[in-house]
Amino acid sequence: MRTNWGRAASVAVCPRHLFPSVLLSSSALAAVSTRAAAQELGGSAAGLDIRLLLILGTMLGVMAFAIGTALYAMRTTRQSRARAEAAINEAETLRSRKMRLESILAAEPQLLFAWTEAQAPKLLIANLPQSLGVPSAADAFMRFSEWLSEDGVDSLKAAIASLTETGQGFNLMLATLAGKHIEIDGRAAGPCVTLKVRDITGQRLDMARVGDRHRLLDAQIGALKSLLDTLPEPAWLRGPDRNLTWVNQAYADATDANAATRVVQEQIDILPPNDRKAAEKSLARAGEFREQILVSTSRGAQRYSAQVVGRGGVSAGMAREIAAERKPQASADGRLRGFDRMATAFAVFDSEQRLVHFNQAYADLWKLDAAWLADGPFDAEILDKLRFARQLPEKADYRDWKQGWLAVYGRDAQFDDEWHLPDGRALHVVIDSVPGRGVTYLYEDVTERFALESRYNELIQVQRETIDTLREGVAVFSQDGALRLYNKAFASIWRLNPRQLDGEPHIDEVIESCRVLHDDQEEWARTKVAVTAITSERYPYESQFDRDDGCVIAAAALPLPDGGTLLTYVDVSDSVRAERALIEKNEALETADRLKTTFIRHVSYELRTPLTNIVGFTDFLLDVARDPLSDKQAEYLNDIRSSGRTLRTIIDDILDLASIDAGALHLEKDGVDVRKVIASLESGLAGQMQQNGVKLAVEIGEAVDRVTADRQRLSQILYNLLSNAVSFSPNGGTVMLNCDDDDGMIRFRVKDEGPGIPAEMQESIFEPFESRASGAGRRGAGLGLAIVKSLVELHGGHIALRTGTDRGTEFQVWLPRAPQDTSDAAGSGRHSSLAG
To answer: Which segments of the protein form a coiled coil according to its record (predicted)?
Structure first.
């Protein structure tokens, strides 16, 4: 048993792959030893039972298995814990290393992008100053044209393409649109591509600026070379070694080399050896060389005027061909002499494309030197000179256009063209080409004609848009009766199809279509005559008619100066209906007013007769009674007489108002003495003033004498005003009557000390039957002030009101002053009196 436990212990420390076999061996040994023990004890009848031995052996095996498993689990746990601690330590080490790397990368201002073929660019670091103009977002960064200069975009795109395709790294110094310089570095790291953007400072910034300056100078030199390449004169450049470094196409053409690159490669010199040596000496001495040289070309020996200048060991030259002895004459050919006086520019070129004749208008049109033209330049030279001065139409490919233009030489052709120049001028060019004789050009300046046509078309468009906005229907017919112009309102009013009207139908067709809504033979006949009649019989007219659909149309026809006719139609249905309604209402009101006036006049006359009898008999009873009357009888008779007179006054006022409204009241104007009128009023108002306890103060200015008025009506005006003032004056109050001159008018002012007129009643105070309670609490008939206002206006004067609560009321009346009459003067001096 001791040996077996030792083996079991050794199993616990065995490697993992030997553990199962050890367990099986232990179990087997336990079973064998149990069975052996059982056999040893089997022969003894007093020994243990064999089953007990078997159970004991099994238990020993299980215990061995459990102990082995526990030992294995302990070992495995220790190993796992050791590996976990190692992994944690390694992760901390990597994290520290990552933080150090990020700190190192973040220490320098930069943008760092990374991407793979399957993954879009991703921003890793972004601490670059925004003033550089570089976007920090990945998608915005990849849109290079939004923040990089044009040449920088192309360079960066090409470098990135090479990096992603071949893995070739790059380092570029570029300029942003913000005017800043940056450095972009691209590298490939396995399947990943990185792009680093950094600011440039110090010496590297100076280098970047030098590079920009170099590129600018290179571009300027390229532009100058391109310009020189378009000139018809040969031009060239020489380096410090005095060899040719560049020539233009004209140089290559003059030397028959065709290609400029061949001239430079083979050093084909246009200057003869002697002239070249002379040019070198002149450049060394004065920095310039000017001389006429003879050059062998495909056209033979040609004489050129050469000019060479030198700077810093580099020289540039140009040679201008000297024209042949044959030069154009302004009027050498008698057949062309008449063209010299033409305002139209013309030029004649011979079969060799040389200018042989031109007029002054040609030189003025193109602003060319007549002396230079007299040298007989080629047609191509003139075209190039005009293009350089931007006096030719803008063409996308000038070379092809010029070749096509010069291809007319040698052909029998006549055609014309329209040239629109950059300066806004328009030319009509006529070309006449005769084989073997050259080409003749005529240039007509049609700028003004084009401008007039443009303005005319604009006016027509404005006119059309204007009439389309009108609510009136407008139609213009030409002298032959065809419809030339119409607006939408015309088609809408007559419910016509615009397609039919766009076909310029005759007036007969238009009338026939309009008859559906209004079939008036006479109206349409007059319309047709207005459109188609001869000029002497055409006249304007206006009419109005009711259509069958209930619409009322106002029509008008107006002859136009060009022989056409303008027809207008307006739908006035609403206004006509409103007008007719107003007319009917006005007629009804006038009828009612006439009835009212007739009724009032009739009733007033009917009331006046018995009232006169009542007042007369009352006066008779009071005056001639034989028997004495008692006090009560006398009081009653006086009341009857007073009421009768008041009623008669009201009836008279009603009759006066009715007469004024009917226009039947006529004034008998004359020069009226103001003082006499006022004196008669003082006695007439004495009873009323005594009854109310009111005094009257009268003040008449020195300049007041006579007024142009109806004496009776003037007395009525002043009486009504004074009576009204007395009625509203308090007991013991004073009514003021002032009369003075006011700018050629006589002004009467009547003022009381009453309570005044409320604001809400001031606007209607002069209206008939508008009254207010007097100081005694009684209301009048409301006719006195209305009659005053009407009578004043009949006299050509006016009345005004000045009042306020508890401030009294003042009426001012202005009447025309009578002409000065010394024979009937009332005397001078200021008059003042106090009655009551």
So the answer is: 74-104
